[in-house]
Amino acid sequence: MSASARHCLGYCCLIAVALAGCAAGPDYHRPPAEVPPAWEPQAPWHEAVPSDAALKGDWWKVFHDADLERLVELSLQANQNLQAAAARLAQARDQVKVAESDFYPTIGLSAAAARAKNSANRPLSEYSVPNDSTVQNDFVIGPTVNYEFDLFGRVRREVEGVRASAQQAAADYENTRLLLIAQLAGDYFTLRELDAEIDVLDRDLKLQREALNFVNSRHELGFATGLDLAQQQALLDSSGAQLELLKVQRAQNEHAIATLVGTPAPSFHLEPLVLSPEIPVPPVGVPSDLLQRRPDVAAAERAMAAANARIGVARAAFYPAVDLRPFVPGVGWESNTLATLFDAPSRLWAVGVSVTETLFDAGKTRANVRIATADYTAAVATYRQTVLNAMEEVENGITGLSSLQRAVIHADASVYSARRAFDIASERYKGGVDTYLDVITAEQTLLTDQRQAVQIHGQQFLTTVYLIKALGGGWSGAPATASRND
Question: Domains of the chain (ranges plus CATH)?
Answer without folding.
Answer: 26-116+152-318+362-482 (1.20.1600.10)
